[in-house]
Each structure stands twice: as C-alpha cells, then as structure tokens.
C-alpha cells in the first residue's frame, strides 16, 4: 500500500526530479571528467566564497578609510578657504593642495552644480565617498566617479566660487582587485593542472584493466599487470585470478573432451568395421546411415562444448571468406551473391568464425533458393547480414531457436544432423568474439541472420 503525498509536497518533488534529471543528462559520463568536476567545483566555490565574504569586506573597509581621508582633505580645503584672507588665498590653497595633499584644485565661477551622474554597477566608491563628504561638509557638493576613470572629481558650492578638486582614484578606492583575481585564476589553474595530471595517472590503470578484460572476452591475449592505487591493484589481481581459473577450466574441458572424443570415435569406428564385415544389404545400409548420423551428431555436440576456444586470433579477409561461402552455395544450386564495404581485414578466430557463418548459411542452403551475403566494417564493428527467401522463423520463436537442442517443429531445423545446435554454436562463437547473432525479417522475404562483432 502506497501513501499519496499531499499536493503541496508533490509539486516540489516533481520539480526536484525534473532538475535532477536535467543535471543527470548534462553531467559527464566518464570517470575522469567526473573526478575533475569533483575537484574543480570545490575550488570554484571556495574562491568565490573568499572573493565575496573576505575580499569584499576587505575592499569595503579599505575604501571607507581612503574615502574618509579624501573627505577630510576636501573639508580641510574648504575650511582653509573660509579662514584665509582674500589676497593670495587661491594661490595658497592651490599650493597646499598640490604639494601637501597631491590633488588638483580649481576655482570655478558660481553656477549650479551638475545633475547627479549615473551610478556604476559596482557603486561602492560612490556610496562611501558620498557618505563621508556628507558627514564633513555643510556646503552642497557633487561627485563624479565614472567620467574620468583614473580620477575622482569633487565640486563644492561656496558662496563666491565653486571648488573643483581632482583626486587620483587610487587615493579613494582600493583598486588592486585585478591583482587578486589574477592570482586567484593562476592558483586555480595550477591546482586544476596538478589535479588533472594526478587523476589521469589514477584512471590510466582502470582503463588498462577494462581493456584487458575486453580483450580477454574477445579471446585475445593481452599483457597486463596490476598497477595504480591499492583498490585498483586489488581489482587487477582479482581479474588475473579469474582469468587463470577460466583458462584452467577451459583447459580441463578441452582435455576431457579430447578423451570423450577419442572414446566415442573408437566405438563408431568399431561399428563401421562391423558393418563392413557384414557386407551390403538393406539392413546394413540403414545401419550405416544411422552410424553416419550418429557421427555427425557427436561432432556437433563436441563442437558446441569445445567452442573452438583453443584457437588463436588472426587477421582474416572477411570479404574473401564471404565470396568463398557464396561460391559454395552456387555450386549447390542456389542463386547467391555477396558484397562488402569498408576494410575487409578483421581479427577473428578463423576456423570458429567460418563455422559460425557456415552454420547460418547452412540453414539458408537447406530451406531457400536465393541467398545474399553482405558485410561492412566501419572501423568499430564488423556486421554481416545473411538473407534468404526461405520460410523463415516466427518472431516468437527466434530467441528459442538459439537454445541448445531446441528444434523447430515448423519452418526449419538448425543443422543437418537435427541436433538443435547450429544456431547455438553460431551465437556462442559470436559471444566468444565479443559480439552477437540476431534474427530478423529479410528483405528477400525469408530470414535475416546478422552477425555483429567489435573490431
């Protein structure tokens, strides 16, 4: 029994699932990229937090002190203007402003102050300087922190003149933020480069282990020794131990099958000798037929159990192999043709691969009149289609046709000896190469058998 969530809780849950699904689709799928993301995100968040919570407070405090100093200088100039006598007052103030305060002072005619200028996006200086001047001046004033980027302009309206003061922007504002950001970016890049190099070295042994497992699954030998972190070495050692057990089991099966094959063939040979001594008769002809069928079935069972696992991988011209199989079909009276596209060379077990194709083509040879073999190699996979115009296999029984010893009552059987192993052997060989065999409808109206192998 499931409890339905209340409506107020159901909407946030759907929203969270939608956001989670959106992030999952856009997150990197590789371990290397995900590990880099795990390293980079904390660095970015940490640097952002430092820049906002620490440096912003630092800049605000420094800017407040600098702006307060500039406001004091402006207030001192206004007080001196009011205190000094008229003769020589302007020259004295300009000399004090230039030599002692390091600012430019100009005297403008009495006129209304300009309208307020637009505020910049980062208006810390504008707000801070305005606040400090308001605390120290009783006269109207106007400031411009944007018009001239390297200077701050301050105008103070006095009864008989307007004071125009130009101060360097560095006197009122902590302007070394770019240095902090440059060092932050450089430090982040160095950390990311070190992390990327370290992660690449850690992931390389995992990739080597995956490649070794893939090659072993295809029946190919590859030199492999565990390396990397302790957990990766443990996984590599477990893979080698599994590989040794599989090879030992395969060797034991091969030895056992060799003995069984020898014993069975010995008995069948005795039957043949006995039949030869009996001579020709209707009874002996039927017995010879039974012995031949028995011999074919035994060979099929042994081939299925053995799987040609002891054969080494070689480079085979698949196009030439298809043409050879096509020629054999034509000699049997079938209308057969073949075509191939891409690189014809592929690394397979020659005898096993030929047996796989022969079992699939054998079905078409027995139940069809037309046969088409087509192959392609795109550099990643080798795909071979075997099409015929026979009765085919029903959709609901195509997977069952691959089961060992399974026989189709209608349509077709799997091999000549009626052992029910033809398609099973073909798929088993494809699996040993890391591929697969599938059945589907053929453009010719019959059955299509598709062999797909990695190259």
TrEMBL record:
HAMP domain sequence ranges: 200-251
Reactions it catalyzes: ATP + protein L-histidine = ADP + protein N-phospho-L-histidine
Subcellular location: Cell inner membrane
Record-linked SMART domains: HATPase_c, HisKA
Pfam family, one: HATPase_c
Protein keywords: ATP-binding, Cell inner membrane, Cell membrane, Kinase, Membrane, Nucleotide-binding, Phosphoprotein, Transferase, Transmembrane, Transmembrane helix, Two-component regulatory system
GO cellular component, one term: plasma membrane
Coiled-coil intervals: none
Gene3D superfamilies in the record: 1.10.287.130, Histidine kinase-like ATPase, C-terminal domain (3.30.565.10)
Membrane topology: Multi-pass membrane protein
Top-level EC class: transferase
PROSITE patterns assigned: HAMP, HIS_KIN
Segments traversing the membrane: 31-55, 179-199
CDD domains: HisKA (cd00082)
A single GO molecular function term of this UniProt record: phosphorelay sensor kinase activity
Record-linked InterPro entries: 2C_sensor_his_kinase (IPR050980), HAMP_dom (IPR003660), HATPase_C_sf (IPR036890), HATPase_dom (IPR003594), His_kinase_dom (IPR005467), HisK_dim/P_dom (IPR003661), HisK_dim/P_sf (IPR036097), Sig_transdc_His_kin-like_C (IPR004358)
EC number per UniProt: 2.7.13.3
Domain Histidine kinase stretches: 259-455
Chief site of localization: membrane
Name of the protein: histidine kinase
Protein's organism: Methylosinus trichosporium (strain ATCC 35070 / NCIMB 11131 / UNIQEM 75 / OB3b)
């Amino acid at each position: 029994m499931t409890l339905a969530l209340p409506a107020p809780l159901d909407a946030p849950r759907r929203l969270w699932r939608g956001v989670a699904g959106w992030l999952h689709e856009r997150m990197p799928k590789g371990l290397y990229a995900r590990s880099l993301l795990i390293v980079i995100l904390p660095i970015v968040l940490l640097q952002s937090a430092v820049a906002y919570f620490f440096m912003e407070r630092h800049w605000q405090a420094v800017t407040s002190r600098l702006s307060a100093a500039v406001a004091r200088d402006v207030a001192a100039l206004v007080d001196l203007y009011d205190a000094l006598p008229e003769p020589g007052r302007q020259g004295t103030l300009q000399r004090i402003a230039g030599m002692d305060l390091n600012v430019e002072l100009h005297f403008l005619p009495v006129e209304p102050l300009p309208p307020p200028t637009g505020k910049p996006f980062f208006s810390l200086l504008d707000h801070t300087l305005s606040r400090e001047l308001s605390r120290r001046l009783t006269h109207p004033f106007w400031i411009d922190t944007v018009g001239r980027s390297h200077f701050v302009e301050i105008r103070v309206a006095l009864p008989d003149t307007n004071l125009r003061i130009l101060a360097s922007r560095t006197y009122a504002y902590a302007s070394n933020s770019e240095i902090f950001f440059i060092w932050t970016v450089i430090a982040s890049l160095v950390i990311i480069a070190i992390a990327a190099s370290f992660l690449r070295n850690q992931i390389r042994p995992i990739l080597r282990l995956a490649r070794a497992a893939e090659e072993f699954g295809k029946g190919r030998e590859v030199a492999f020794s565990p390396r990397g972190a302790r957990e990766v070495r443990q996984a590599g050692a477990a893979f080698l131990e599994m590989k040794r057990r599989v090879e030992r089991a395969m060797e034991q099966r091969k030895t056992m099958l060799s003995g069984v094959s020898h014993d069975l063939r010995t008995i069948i040979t005795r039957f043949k000798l006995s039949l030869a001594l009996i001579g020709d008769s209707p009874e002996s002809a039927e017995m010879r037929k039974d012995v031949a069928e028995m011999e074919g079935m035994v060979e099929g069972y042994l081939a299925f159990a053995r799987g040609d696992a002891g054969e080494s991988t070689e480079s085979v011209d698949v196009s030439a192999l298809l043409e050879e199989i096509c020629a054999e079909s034509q000699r049997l009276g079938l209308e057969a043709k073949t075509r191939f596209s891409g690189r014809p060379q592929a690394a397979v077990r020659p005898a096993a691969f030929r047996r796989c194709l022969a079992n699939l083509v054998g079905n078409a040879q027995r139940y069809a009149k037309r046969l088409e073999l087509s192959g392609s190699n795109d550099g990643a996979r080798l795909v071979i289609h075997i099409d015929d115009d026979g009765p085919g296999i029903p959709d609901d029984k195509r997977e069952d046709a691959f089961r060992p010893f399974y026989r189709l009552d209608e349509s077709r059987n799997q091999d000549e000896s009626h052992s029910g192993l033809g398609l099973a052997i073909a798929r088993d060989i494809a699996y040993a190469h890391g591929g697969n065999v599938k059945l589907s409808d053929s453009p010719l109206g019959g059955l299509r058998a598709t062999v797909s192998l990695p190259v």
